[in-house]
From TrEMBL:
Transmembrane segments: none annotated. GO terms for molecular function: gibberellin 3-beta-dioxygenase activity; metal ion binding. GO terms for biological process: gibberellin biosynthetic process; response to light stimulus. This is gibberellin 3beta-dioxygenase.
């Protein structure tokens, strides 16, 4: 009998190490923008320096406690792939604790943060954004990635106080997981999908064996924000991403492939974004939205992304009910780890590289606009 080993989420980059060293990552001390940070926007995306950044459009803001919230979610995901949510049930005090702990982490002196540096072939720990290798210039940000328990890294950062930070992270993960489950079922329900249609979501649809990654992002004050980029344009690989941003603007989403729309911070709101796996699962009906994060001269910005995905063994393919004569099968079956590995090579071209046929309906496949010209 042959046994196939399913790769773990934490092993995905063993074959694709990140070859940019983290040890020079100290943006706080820079008074002038070094040439290595003078951002070149990929041809496939509109300029981020454009003063005409769309002011007329705004990302939908949905009150989850309203009876028509499911309908609003369905519409927002079809047309934008992203929305902001309020009355989501996650305690505001927990969001505040998570924000303050994230600030505490990034405020540590650089050599101290490097004690928990991510290894070149690893996923967790402190370092540059993984996508750095796909851009010719560096991004004005630093990050910390958590998969499962952060205990080992937190013990290195805070030998005496690690347990309180582990507790906050654990509670945050629990709340985010439950919100993701709630939003996914509402979103799928709007497409006529029931729990029985999604066999890998477990018998009662509670995603017991799901996986998640928490990404803490910090964008220090930048001496020349019109020339620098915090996090380059990308889509997330998750099913769903829930993002908390502090009260500082920076997140922009790509609208109709031709303009950036700022996601204005709203106190207590969370940003919900479709990831590539939900795009595949819904056969392109809910598009994963390209986004980027810009920086500013006066305020330090932080964001906390919770990437929600299936278990390592779950096979994700377009749901049968969403494959019709007018919307033929667009994608093959993938697992999250297979897809992440592909993305580590092909980045923004991953989704189009696996696509089986062109979409026939008017459904917006935003990744057509996202393709990086190579
Ligand atoms: C599971 C993951 C999603 C992510 C890559 C990663 O392996 C761990 C970090 C995630 C992150 C955070 C910053 C932006 C992003 C594109 C990146 O470079 O690392 C995402 C990745 C993703 O969604 O593909
Ligand atoms: O900082 C932000 O607003 C965006 C972060 C993000 O896109 C990510 O972590 O994937
Ligand atoms: Fe993202």
């Amino acid at each position: 009998m042959t046994t196939t080993t399913i790769p773990k989420l934490t092993d995905i980059y063993k074959t694709h190490p990140l070859d940019i060293p983290t040890n020079k990552l100290n943006l706080d001390s820079l008074q002038q923008l070094p040439d290595t940070y003078d951002w070149i926007q990929p041809d496939a995306f509109p300029s981020f320096r454009d003063p005409n950044i769309s002011l007329s459009d705004s990302v939908p803001l949905i009150d989850l406690s309203l009876p028509n919230a499911p309908h609003l979610i369905g519409n927002a995901l079809k047309t934008w792939g992203v929305f902001q949510v309020i009355n989501h049930g996650v305690p505001i005090s927990l969001l505040n604790s998570m924000e303050s702990f994230t600030n505490t982490l990034f405020d540590l002196p650089s050599p101290h943060k490097l004690k928990a540096a991510r290894t070149p072939d690893g996923v967790t720990g402190y370092g540059l954004p993984r996508i750095s290798t796909f851009f010719p210039k560096r991004m004005w940000s630093e990050g910390f990635t958590i998969v499962g328990s952060p205990l080992e890294h937190f013990q290195k950062l805070w030998p005496n106080e690690y347990s309180k930070y582990c507790d906050i992270t654990e509670e945050y993960s629990r709340e985010m997981k439950s919100l993701c489950g709630r939003v996914i079922w509402l979103a799928l329900g709007e497409l006529g999908i029931t729990r029985e249609d999604v066999n890998w979501a477990e018998a009662n649809g509670d995603f017991k064996t799901s996986n998640a990654v928490i990404q803490l992002n910090s964008y220090p004050v930048c001496p020349d924000p019109d020339r620098a980029m915090g996090l380059g344009a990308h889509t997330d690989t998750s099913l769903l991403t829930i993002l908390y941003q502090n009260n500082t603007r920076g997140l922009q989403v790509l609208r109709e492939g031709n303009r950036w729309v700022m996601v204005e911070p709203v106190t207590g709101a969370l940003v919900v974004q479709v990831g590539d796996l939900l795009h595949i699962l819904t056969n392109g009906l809910y598009p994963s939205s390209a986004h980027q994060a810009v920086v500013n001269q006066n305020r330090k910005r932080i964001s906390i992304a919770y990437f929600f995905g299936p278990s390592e063994s779950a096979e994700i393919s377009p749901l049968n009910k969403l494959v019709t004569p007018t919307q033929p099968l667009l994608y093959p079956t993938v697992t999250w780890t297979e897809y992440l590995r592909k993305k580590a090579q092909l980045f923004n071209n991953t989704l189009s590289s696996i696509r089986l046929s062109a979409p026939l309906t008017g459904a917006l496949d935003i990744n057509d606009h996202n393709q990086v010209k190579v």
